[in-house]
User: Fold this.
Amino acid sequence: MALGKRQIAEQPRPTGNFELFSWYFMRVSGVVLLFLILGHLAVMHLFGSVEDVSAAFVAERLANPLWRVYDLTMVVLALLHGGNGVRWILDDYVHSNRWRLIAFSTLYTALFVLLVVGSLILLTFQVPGSPAAGSFSAMR
Amino acid sequence: MIREIFTYRGKEGYWLWVLHRATGVGIFLFLAIHIVDTLLVFWPNLYDAVTGLYRHPLFRVGEILLVGMVLFHAVNGLRILVLDLWEASTKHRRELFYATLALLAVLLIPALLLMVREIIL
Assistant:
C-alpha cells in the first residue's frame, strides 16, 4: 500500500484484525516505552555516564532481578514497536515484489535474531560469583 | 523515495511525521547495535574493549544525537496520541505543533546541559 500523491500522511485508523491491533499496539507500547526508555536514558546517560559502563558494571546491575525485568520488557517492546514501524515504512516505500520479499524477509529475520539475543542476555547472564554461577561452574 | 518525501505538500504536521519516521528508524538501528554490543558481556574483556569506543568524542556526539532523537520521538508520539484520543485537538493542530516543540525544548535543554557538562568535566 504505497502512499498515493494525494493521500494524506496521517492515515486513518486501519481496519482488519492485525492492522488494527498493530495500530493500537504502537500507541500502548509507545506510552510504556516512553517511561521505560526515558528512565533508562536518565539513569544511564544523564545521571550516569558511558564512562562507567563496563562488564563489571553490567554484572552488578543484572544481579538485581528488577533491572532484568525492566530491561527485558523494554527490549522486547522496543523491538516490536520499532519492527512494526519499519514494517509500515517499508510497506510505504518498497513497491516491487522482488524488493518487498527481500526487505520484509530481512526485517523479520533481523527482528527474530534480535529478540532471541536480547532475551538470551537478560535471561541467561550469570553474575560472576553469584550462587547460580558457582553451582554452574562446579557442575562443569 | 526522496521525491515521495518532498512532493507531499503538508504543513507542520507533515514535517513532524517525516522526522518521526526518520528518528524511529535511527533509534531502531541503534537498538540493533546496542543489543549486539551487550551480547559481548558474556566475554567481559571484549565487552570492555568495545564499550570503550563509546567514550570516544565522536560517539559522545552520537550519544547526544541519540538522546535528542528519542526525546523528539517520545514527545511527537504524545502529540499523535492527543490527536487520536481527543478529537477537538484536531482543530488546533498548529497550537499542538508549538506545544510539542515547547515540551521538547523543556526536556531537551536540561538533558543537553547535563550531557555536555558530563563530557567537559
The mean pLDDT of chain B is 87. Helices of chain B lie at 2-7, 12-39, 44-52, 57-85, 93-120. The two ends of chain B are 43 Å apart (CA to CA).
